[in-house]
Amino acid sequence: MCGIVGYIGDKEAFPILIKGLRRLEYRGYDSAGVALINDDNNLNVCKAKGKVDDLVNYCTDKNVSGTVGIAHTRWATHGEPSQVNAHPHYSQSHNLAIIHNGIIENYADLKKKLVAKGVTFQSDTDTEVLVQLIEYVQERKKVDLLTAVQLALREVIGAYAIALLDRRDPEQIIAARNQSPLVVGIGDGEFFLGSDASPIVEYTDKVVYLEDGNIAVLRKGEDLKVVNRLNRELNPEIQTVDINLGQLEKGGYPHFMLKEIFEQPECITNCMRGRVNVDTDNVVLSAVIDYKKQLLNANRFIIVACGTSWHAALIGKQMIENFCRIPVEVEYASEFRYRNPVITNKDVIIAISQSGETADTLAAVKLAHDNGAFIYGICNAIGSSIPRATDTGSYIHVGPEIGVASTKAFTGQVTVLTMLALALAKEKKTISAETYLQIVKELHEIPSKMGKVLQLNNRIADLSRTFTYARNFLYLGRGYSYPVALEGALKLKEISYIHAEGYPAAEMKHGPIALIDSDMPVVVIATHNAMYEKVLSNIQEVKARKGKVIAIVTEGDDTISRIADEVIELPTTIECLEPLLATIPLQLLAYHIAVCKGKNVDQPRNLAKSVTVE
Q1: Contact 95, 168 (CB under 8 A)
Q2: Reading across the β-sheet that carries 183-186, which strands appear in turn?
Q3: Per the residue annotation, which of 49, 51, 317, 609 is the catalytic one?
Q4: Integer Cα distance of 425 and 432 in angstroms
Q5: Is 556 exposed, middle or buried (0-12, 13-18, 19+ CB in 10 A)?
Q6: What is the pLDDT, as a whole number, of residue 569?
Q7: What are phi and psi of 20, to 5 degrees?
Q8: In 10 A of CB 525, how many CB atoms?
Q9: Which 3 state secondary structure label does DSSP give 296?
Q10: What would the mean pLDDT of 33-38 be, rounded to a whole number?
């Protein structure tokens, strides 16, 4: 959630840190700050409530010189958003400064003990407790910063990615990780630090992803040193990051979200590249080839996910059950991890996360692993924690997603789940050759059909102005379209702050129909599939109560178009692939309504891109 940046080398650190914080703005935050050691070995901390621009303005007349520094964007957990609670935090002596992502669960007990020892606190944060603890250990044990960090972290319960400066040792940064991502970039005589690779890739493509329990020592003129809390030296793998810097820029679009919506045809092509071979009528996933026995012999699949990924999982459930005849359960990872679920070594757990760092999903993976299940990860961020924690899996390969409200990651996840269902069904011989061939060929056509849907953008923008007045929306769908309704409602809630709910269309009469009046817009996914007549009846029920209907229909529909107030036509496709097309107009609708309302589309309030805390 929060963003971490660090630099140590021969360049001025402040411009690098600020540029890095801007790269991480997509993660969501409410304050920002920097700490730098200047040539006189003064440790200067500057921080401000608000955006990175507010920090830059605050620093205008401050001393921000120095070639060693750390920086942070904070998403409030303990203590309200304020300058005092912003990171970095000083220790009591002002010799140390720390930045921190995550949550220290036993911070209250630690704080009580430190207060009893005479330590005074300036903020309400759990993070300040950690830096005060480290300094207390350092002074009491008369040890260097690395040893103090190792000893202090043995007393800490919780998740953290931290970076520390010590003004008495001005040529090093100490960084540590547990259940919260942290990446070290290795340059030419310099090191970079980030909560992900986006602030680093401009300077180097060589990175080390720290593992849980790792502590990194970044020292000028020396090689990277990584140890554990017991001081055993480790040999981390140096990886090459393949991120095009242009993917981190808006490329002429007014917002990242709109750019990412329009990238979907190319993204889905990239997702399928090397996996869907229409010439040989085949879908190939290396994970299915390498782990065929574990996947085919499973008694059931359990998909764990959160938010948008959970909606993709609901679509995947239908496809896997329909084509593979394997029972599938879909669980919120946050509930799954706490309800003592029944898991056996005959289960396959599919963990879905765009960032690969979602705390609840990671915890669910660990729980499943401890119970002997086979674990399959579906992620976007290469080298992130979930891919490293799972037995196998598939990347969605849609490129960095900067907008907080997920768009291309959702369609990428649905595409991977489709390919997984097809590959398994073929191996199990539970799908006819004709159906398999039909879906493979149609899947190959989806990117071009997405392009046709995107041509409706201007019309949807015009339509959106009509509905900015609304205070509530209802989204309805059936079958494969029900999860799309959920996802459409979530997108509107996230970025426009209009209350919206998604329902199976047939469930409307079991309660939500009471809400419908002339002020209630109802979005209905009513494509021409097996449920068409049923959904048509639901639309008539809405119209009988003067509800305003926006219908997503198949092109050429001349029945619903006579009933609905607004109609958006989609190209014809196979029912199971309709979510890949139907979700795009809902993304555009949410986007344009939010823009009309003057909302911050890429950084909606209270939300974060990578949810690394509970």
Answers
A1: yes
A2: 43-49, 31-37, 68-74, 3-8, 191-194, 183-186, 206-209, 239-240
A3: 609
A4: 9
A5: exposed
A6: 95
A7: -65, -40
A8: 32
A9: helix
A10: 94
Contact 380, 395 (CB under 8 A): yes
Residue 612 pLDDT > 60: no
Please give the structure tokens belonging to residue 45.
Answer: 């901390």
User: Which uninterrupted H or E stretch holds 363?
Assistant: helix 359-370
What was the pLDDT predicted at 27?
67
Tokens, residue 267: 């993204």
| pLDDT per residue as tens digits for the range 193-203 | 998 888 888 89
How high is the pLDDT of residue 168?
94
Tens-digit pLDDT profile for residues 380-407? 887 788 888 899 999 998 988 888 899 9
Are 70 and 17 contacting, i.e. CB atoms less than 8 angstroms apart?
yes
Looking up tokens 């869907």 gives: 276
Consecutive H or E run containing 423: helix 408-428
- From the CB of residue 112, how many other CB atoms can be counted at a distance below 10 Å? 10
Taking CA atoms, 305 is separated from 58, 471, 520, in Å, by 40, 29, 31
92 pLDDT higher than 90: yes
What does the block give as tokens for 123?
């903020």
Can you tell me whether residue 284 is helix, strand or coil?
coil
CB-CB contact of 532 with 541 (8 Å): no
| Mean pLDDT for all residues in the chain | 90
CA dihedral 475, 479, 484, 489 (to 10 degrees): 20
Active site residue 2: yes
C-alpha 429 chain-centroid distance = 35
Secondary structure element (H or E) that encloses residue 552, with its range: strand 548-554
Q: 174 - beta bridge partners?
A: 164, 217
Question: Can you tell me the distance from the alpha carbon of 57 to that of 346, in angstroms, rounded to the nearest whole number?
Answer: 58
Q: Is there a contact between 344 and 371 (Cβ–Cβ < 8 Å)?
A: yes
Strand blocks (E) in 179-310: 183-186, 191-194, 206-209, 215-219, 225-227, 233-234, 239-240, 276-277, 282-283, 300-305
> Could you confirm whether 609 is annotated as catalytic?
yes
